[in-house]
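Job type: complex structure
Entries:
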Amino acid sequence: MAKKQLVVGIDIGGTNTVFGFVDREGNILAEDRIKTAHYEKIEEYVAALYEKIMVTQLKIKDENEIIGFGIGAPMGNINKGTIEYAAGLPWKGIIPIADLFKRYTSLPVVVTNDANAAAVGEMIYGGARKMKNFVVITLGTGLGSGFVIDGKLVYGHDGFAGELGHTAIRPGPSNRECGCGRKGCLETYVSATGLKRTLLKVMADSIQPSELRKFSFDELDAELIHEAAKRGDDLAKRAFEHTGRMLGFKLADVVAHTNPEAIFLFGGLALAKELIFEPAKEFMEENLLHIYKGKVKLLPSELSTQNAAVLGASSLIWSIKEL
Amino acid sequence: MAKKQLVVGIDIGGTNTVFGFVDREGNILAEDRIKTAHYEKIEEYVAALYEKIMVTQLKIKDENEIIGFGIGAPMGNINKGTIEYAAGLPWKGIIPIADLFKRYTSLPVVVTNDANAAAVGEMIYGGARKMKNFVVITLGTGLGSGFVIDGKLVYGHDGFAGELGHTAIRPGPSNRECGCGRKGCLETYVSATGLKRTLLKVMADSIQPSELRKFSFDELDAELIHEAAKRGDDLAKRAFEHTGRMLGFKLADVVAHTNPEAIFLFGGLALAKELIFEPAKEFMEENLLHIYKGKVKLLPSELSTQNAAVLGASSLIWSIKEL
C-alpha cells in the first residue's frame, strides 16, 4: 500500500508553537507543541521544533511520508519565507524561518500569516471548497484578512496583501489608538479588544444598568459580553451592534475592490453568530453599490476554531501541490 | 510577408462610439466613429458599427488581419460579455453586446468597463509593462478603478470588481449625494465633478477672494480650477488639496487590501500633476501601516488621454492572446 501523504502544519504563536500532521481531508493524525518563548535564539528554536516534529512522527501508526511544511506566523511573508518585525515573538527584525527550516529538509517550506493561512484552509478543507473568489476575515485579539482571487491567495507585490485590520474607519482624527502606532484602524473597533473598547464607550454614554458594569476592562472579554448579550443585556447588545456595523461598513469596501462570491468570518467574535452577522450584513448591504446588493454571501467559517491555525498552515502545502 | 495582426479597440460612450485598429505596440493605424445616441435599437447600432469597422479596415495600406474585438463600455461585464444597466447609454437593461457582435464574426469579442480597459492598457502598452500587481484609478466625470493581480485583471465573482468610486468615505451620514443613489461615495469627492463640489464648499466657507467666484457651477470645470490653482488662487489650491487627501485616504485601503507595486492615476484630474499627486501621496502614506510605508509608487498613467479608451479596449485581446 502506498504511504499516506501528510503535511506538517505549524502555528507559531507568542507563547506556544503548535504543530500537527494533517492529511488531505484535514484529519490531524498527531500533534504536539513546544514553548515559543523558551527560545531566545531562532536557530535553537528551529532545531528544537524540528526534532520534536520528527519524534512525533514516530507516533503515527500508518505508514506515511511528509510532503512539506506549512508555517503560519504573525507577519509571515509568503514571498520571502520570512517573519518580519513580529511584535509578539521573541526574535527581532527579519527572521528567515523558511531558510532555517531548509537546513533540515529538502521538502517545500511555506510561510504566511495566520489570516492567509485561514483563507487557504477554508479553500482546501472548509466552506470555500468550490469557490474561486472569496475573503476570510479573522476576528481574534486583532483583525486579519486573507484574499483569494481566481483560486489563488493574493500575496501582493511585497507579500503583505490583506491587512484589512489596519485600514482607517474615517479620514482625519479618530480617538482610538491602535497597537500599530496609528489611530482609528478597523481592528480598534472590530476584534475582541475592539468590542471591549466599544462596550466601555457605551457604558460611559449610557445610564442604563448592565451586569457588565461590575467587571474591569482587564476582566472583560468577548465571551462575557457575548453571554450578557444572549441574556438580553442592552449595553452588551449595543456593543455588538456597533462592532457589526463597523465591520459591515468596511466589508462593503472589500466587495467594491475585489467582488468576492463570499466573505467568511472566522474566530472568537464570529461565534457570537447573529449578534455580529446581522448588523454586519445589514450595514454592508446599505453601503453596497446596486450591482452588488444581495449577491455576496456573509458566512461563518467552516474550520473549527480549535484546529484552524494548524489546518490553515498545512493547507498552504496542499494548495501549491495542486496548482 | 506575414499579415500584420491588428485588434479593433472600441470605446462606447454616451455620445460617440470611437474605434481604432491597433497593433501590438499600441499604434493606431486607422480610426473612426459612429454616433452612439443615434441608435435606439442595439441591433441596429451593432450592425452600423460593424459595417463602419469593415469599411475603415479597407483604408489601412499594409496587409493586415483582425484577431479580435475589445470593447470598453460603462458597466461592461467581462464575465458575461454584457453591458448592464448603463445609465448613460440609449439601451436599457442587460445588453448582450458580445453575443450581438458574434453574429458577424467568429473572432474573440471581449467586453469590460473603461477602468478595467485602462488597467490592461497600462499593462500592455504603458507604465505597467513589467508589473504583475498594480491598480489604475481613472479620474474623469466619475472615479473608476481596475485591479491587476499576478498579471491578470481581477474580474471578481460577478464580473464587477474595482468599483472604488462607490466606496464610502466614512461610516454613517454624509452630505454628498452620489449619482448611484447613495451618499458619501468617493467619486463625489475625487473626480472632476467632486473637485467642483469641493471648490463650492471651500468658497462657501471662506471669505477670501478668488477668480473662480465669477463662474457658475455649470461653467466651472476641472481645467478652469487647475488653471486658477497654477496662477496661485488659494481657494482652487485648497480644493485640489482636499481632493488629493480624500483620494490618498482611500488609496491606503487599496494598499492594505491587495498590496500593489504601483497605483497609476489616469484622466483629466491626473493632468494637474503635483496639485493632486502631492496631497494624495502624503495622505496615503499617513494612512499606511508601517510595513507598506514608502514602498508603493503613485504614478501618472503613461497612456495618452486622447487614445487611452481605444488602446485600453484593444489591449484586452492582446492580454488574452498572451496568457
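Summary: The longest strand of chain B covers residues 4-12. The CA atoms of residues 22 and 28 of chain B lie 5 Å apart.
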